[in-house]
Automatic annotation (TrEMBL), chains A, B:
This is Xaa-Pro aminopeptidase. Gene3D superfamilies: Creatinase/methionine aminopeptidase superfamily, Creatinase/prolidase N-terminal domain. Residues 2-135 form the Aminopeptidase P N-terminal domain. It is an enzyme of class 3 (hydrolase). It comes from Pricia mediterranea. InterPro entries: Aminopep_P_N (IPR007865), Creatin/AminoP/Spt16_N (IPR029149), Creatinase/aminopeptidase-like (IPR036005), Pept_M24 (IPR000994), X-Pro_dipept-like (IPR052433). SUPFAM superfamilies: Creatinase/aminopeptidase, Creatinase/prolidase N-terminal domain.
Amino acid sequence: MFSSKTYLNRRMHLKRTLKTGLVLMPGNSESPMNYADNWYPFMQDSTFLYYTGINCVSDLWVLIDIDKDRDILFGDDATPEEMVWTGAAEPMVELAEKSGITMVRPLRELETYVTKRRQQGQKIHFLPPYRAALTLQLAELLGMRHSEIATSASVDLIKAVVAQREIKSDEELREIGKAVDTTVAMHTHAIKNSRPGRTELEIAGELQSIAIGAGGNIAFPIILTINGQYLHNHPTQNRLEKGDLVLCDCGAENTMGYTGDMTRTFPAGERFSDLQRNVYDIVLDAHNTAVSGLEPGVMFKDLHLLASTKLVEGLTQIGLMKGNADDAVAAGAHTLFFQCGLGHMMGLDIHDMENLGEQYVGYTPELTKSTEFGLQSLRLGKALQEGFVVTVEPGLYFNPFLIDAWRAEGRFDDFVNYDAVEKMKDFGGIRIEEDFAITASGSKLLGKALAKTPEAIEALKNS
Amino acid sequence: MFSSKTYLNRRMHLKRTLKTGLVLMPGNSESPMNYADNWYPFMQDSTFLYYTGINCVSDLWVLIDIDKDRDILFGDDATPEEMVWTGAAEPMVELAEKSGITMVRPLRELETYVTKRRQQGQKIHFLPPYRAALTLQLAELLGMRHSEIATSASVDLIKAVVAQREIKSDEELREIGKAVDTTVAMHTHAIKNSRPGRTELEIAGELQSIAIGAGGNIAFPIILTINGQYLHNHPTQNRLEKGDLVLCDCGAENTMGYTGDMTRTFPAGERFSDLQRNVYDIVLDAHNTAVSGLEPGVMFKDLHLLASTKLVEGLTQIGLMKGNADDAVAAGAHTLFFQCGLGHMMGLDIHDMENLGEQYVGYTPELTKSTEFGLQSLRLGKALQEGFVVTVEPGLYFNPFLIDAWRAEGRFDDFVNYDAVEKMKDFGGIRIEEDFAITASGSKLLGKALAKTPEAIEALKNS
C-alpha cells in the first residue's frame, strides 16, 4: 500500500473535479464458483483499490460525500465465529486509517446514509457495474430496477476517474515495473521449459505458480498455445512437438494489484525454422517501429496503422501480399493477418479501466471507436500523454477459417496472394508484446529486458 | 465424458422421479474478475455437468420437458468473429449428441419456449441459483422479481437431484479416484518441498500448477499455512521456520469436474517435535476410529461424535482436558479444539451439492441440522449408503481468540484445563483428511495411499 496521503490526495482530486454529489465506491465481494461459499481468488475492484489502497478485503463500500467533505468506510469487523475460520482480521478502523479515512460505519448503515442523502436531493455518482451481484446491490440500495442501473451510471464520474487513473505516478510506475518483472520471470520460464513432449497446461500451470509465489496471481487467463493463430486461445493438453511455434501471452498482478502483460513466441524445439524466423522478423520490425513512435501527442491509432503498414510490407516481401502497402491498410486487407489492435492501456487492470467503457478510456468525443473489423478491436486510439502506460503488441495470425472464408468471397483479392497464403494455414501465429510508460520525450520499457530477437530467444532457450 | 447413454439414463431417471413439469437446467456463464471480458477460470455448474457431461462450454441451457418427453439443448455456435479469438468450437449439434440430446435450438428461442409452456400451465422446476448473474437471468426468463427466485426453487427437483447425485456409480468412483490421485501428488509435493525459508504462497502456487498440469484445476482455494489453528486460513507470504507445523488442505478437480480433498499436517523442518507428534497421534486415532466405523446404515453424525470423544480422550491424556469424555462431548466442550464437522459429501463439488442446501444433502426430515456451535458446521449427519463418497477429517485447532474468550467467561471450566491450554496458544492446528467411498460392507479409500503416520511423513519428507 502507498502512504495514506496518496489515497487522500486522489480522493481530494476527484472531489475537486466533480464538485458536488455523493460518490458510491463499492469494493468487490467474493465470487462463487460452484456454490455460495466456494470462491474464486478474490480480486478487488480497481477503482476502489485506486482510491483506497485496500486490496484483500471483500464487502467494503466507501462513500465520498463531496458536499459534506466526508469520506466514510462502510464495513464490518470479523466476528469471533469468522475468526475461527480465517483468523484475526485487521479492524476496520485500522484499514480506514491506512487509506486516510477517519469515519467508519457498519455496513447495515450504508442504505440509511444513501437514502437520506438521496431524499435531500443529492446527486448520486456510481460507475457501471461489471458483476451481476453489484447490479443487484445497487438496485436494492437505490430503489431502482436492475435494468436501469447500467444506464444510470455517472458519466461525470467515469470521465473523472479515467482522467486520474490514466496518468501513472512514479510510485505506480515502480509497482507496475515489479509486476512486469514477475511477468518476465514467467516468460523466461516458459521459453526455457517449453520442450517437445510437454503439454501446454503443464507449462501454463508453472507460470501461474510463479505469479502466485510472487504474492499476487495471474492478471488474466494465460494464453500458452501451439495455436497462436487464435488470438486468445487457452492452454490445453496438447503436447508440444518439434517444429511447433509456442505463443505465450501472460502477465502477473502484483500484491498491490498492478499488472504486467507480455507476449513472446518461440520454437518448441531448439531453433526457429527459416520461415518462422522470416515471419518473426516482420512482426519484430513492426513492433520496433511502433515503439520508436511512442511519445506524447502521437495518436495511438496512427501507430496502429503504421505497424499495420510495416506488417503488409513484410508480407509483401515474402510473397503473401501484393500492391501498395498504404492502400492495403486503408482498405483493411491487413486484417486477414492482424485482426486486433496494436495495444491498450495497462495499470490496475490488464486492459486498464475497460469496465468504464473503451470510448471513454481509449477515445475522445472527436475520435470515436471504429466499428470496422480490426479497428473495432483497437482499445486505444487517442493521443498519448506523459504517464500513460501502454502495451505494444503487433502480430501475424494465419487463421485458417478466416483465410478460407475470405478467399471464398474473393475479399481483398487485389492485395492477398491467396495461393501462397494457402500454404500458411498451419503456420500458427506470432505476437511480440511489451509494456511502456510514456515519458516527456518518448517512452520507457517497463520491467527487465527479455530476449526479443530470434537469436536472443534461441540463446535463452538453449542456455 | 462418459458415454451418451449415461447422461440419457440420468435424465430418464430424473423424469421418472419428477413425473411432470419442465426442468430448467442452466449451465454456468463466465464469471468476470475486474471487467466484463476478463474471466475467472470457467467452472461448469455441477448439476448441469451431471446430467449433460458438457464441461468446458459456457452459456448453455438444457430444458427437460417431462410432459413432452423432450430434452433440448439451447446454445449458439461460435461465430466466425469468435473463432478469430478462440479458434474452432465444437458445433452445438455434436455437443448435444455426446449427451444423448437430439434437439438443439439457439439461445434466443429459450424464452419463447419457457413462456409458452408456462402459459400452458406447466410446472417449472429450477434449482436455487448461487450466482447473481443466473438470478437475474431467471428473473427475466420467468417474469419474476429477483428477490422471488431463491424461494421459488423446486424442492421436488432439489430432492430428486440429491437422491441421484449422492450415489456414485463405478465410473464416477474411477473419475473421483483420478482426482484424488492428483490430490495425492499435490500433497506429496507439499510435504517434500516445504522447507524453512520458503513461503506458503510459493508452495501453494506449485500445488496449483500440479492440478492445472493434470488437465483440471484446484477444486477449492488451497489452504497451506503455518496457522493451521484457523480452519480455512489461506496462504500468505509467511516464511516457514524450523519448528513450524504446516497444514495443507487442498484438492484437484479433474478434467470431468470430479474432485479430491485431502489434508496433511507436517513439520516445516525434518521432524515433528514430541508435543506435535503427541497431538498428531490423537488426531490420527480419531481419524482411524471414524474410518473404521464407515458403513451403510451408520449415521455420520454418530461418527462425528465418536471421533470427538476420541479427541477428548487424547486431550485428557496429555492434560488439556479433564472429566468424562462422553459428558464433555455431550456438553460441547470439545468444540474449543474441534470447531467444525468430521466431513462432508464429495463428488462434482468439493462439498457435494452444497448449493442445493445442506438440510437436503446431509440431513433428513427426521434429522435436522443443529444450530449449535460445532454441530452447525457438520455438513453431513444422515445415515450412510453404499455409493456415498465422504471425507473424514477430524482435527485439533488451538485458536488463541477462542481460548481467551471462553476462558474469560469460564466456559467448560469442568472439562478444560485452561492453564495447560494457555501454553498451546501458539501450537497451531492439525487435521488429517482422506476420501472414502461407502461400499456394501464398509468403505474404500479413494486414490493412492499417502503417508499418514508421523513416521511415514518424516520418511517421505526426508526421502
